[in-house]
Amino acid sequence: MYFDAIAIKDEPISLESDSFAPSTMKQSLTSIIDFFYPPFRRWMTIETFRYASCGSANTLLGLFIYYLGYHFIFNKEVFNFGLLAFKPHNAALFLSFIVSFLVGFLLNRYVVFTGSNLRGRIQLFRYFLSFLFNLTLNYFLLKILVEYLGWDAFLSQLLTTLVVITFSYLSQKHFSFKTK
């Protein structure tokens, strides 16, 4: 069974069309981002600029969620989740990635990679695979920096974010939202 529709107010909204993202919101975000593009025209395409803008906003949101999770939600203490226990930097990482996944997919699908002709559920599945790879990469880099090298958790997350962004852009452009 495929879950390719989301119901909001009992009205099914398919991921196969652009009806999920209200066109005024999509147009507003795109217009705001495109307004700042001209000075960067020499160095990057509009798609790359939109990715950098949306990715930066999503990254800042993820870092903000990570900071809140690490310092206030998990209070720098081990988080017990039934039979599992998570170190606070790992629990904050997973919390921030949940939010970043949802926001990132919507921004990439409706603002950045609008030329992709892949079906919405295919994009979502591929985005999820790419996301899992990036989460795994982030997890192990964070583990090495915090647990083995003794670095500060937040500064370590900032550094790993820079590495993950590179892999993320390439996988989104050439895999998740590719054009045929």
Offer a concise description of the structure:
The chain is mainly alpha-helical.
How does this structure look, described?
This protein is mainly alpha-helical and 180 residues long. It is 66% helix and 8% strand. It has 5 helices and 4 strands. It has helices spanning 23-35, 46-73, 88-112, 120-148, 153-176; strands at residues 5-8, 11-14, 79-81, 84-86. A two-stranded antiparallel ribbon has the order 1-2. Strands 3-4 form a two-stranded antiparallel sheet. Helix 4 (120-148) packs antiparallel against helix 5 (153-176). The model is unreliable at 1-13 (pLDDT under 50).
Number of strands: 4
Overall pLDDT confidence: 86
Shape: elongated
Oligomer: single chain
Ordered list of secondary-structure elements with their pairings:
Blueprint: E1 5-8, E2 11-14, H1 23-35, H2 46-73, E3 79-81, E4 84-86, H3 88-112, H4 120-148, H5 153-176
Antiparallel strand pairs: 1-2, 3-4
Features:
single chain; 180 residues; mainly alpha; two-stranded antiparallel sheet; 4 strands; elongated; disordered N terminus
